Amino acid sequence: MIPEPADRVLLRRRLMRRGQDLAMKLSELLAGKDAARLVASLGVDTVGARPEDILRRALDDNEQLRRWLDQADPRYGACAICGQDFTIDELREVPWADRCRAHAGTAVAAH
Length: 111
Ligand SMILES: [Zn+2]
Prior knowledge:
mainly alpha, Four Helix Bundle (Hemerythrin (Met), subunit A), 52% helix, 0% strand, binds zinc ion
């Protein structure tokens, strides 16, 4: 979906903040901080991946979403698997959502 301009400003700000947070966690991780705690705080799928890869992936996904939002690309705010649009309320809650409930935890092919 393509959010209204006022929402785009808000969502973008939150995506930027998440990107900074993820980048900080990645550097803490690489500096030897507690990996399990850092990754657990993300709320992302962690099965079978190294913590630094999980963080890099989350950072990449977050950047991609921010680009799509900036470009008013309808892939922002839609499930990466089935394409179903999220509601604006869902996006305000989780601006980096990229899976609908039915596809939460489903892997997607590379962007
Ligand atoms: Zn879906």
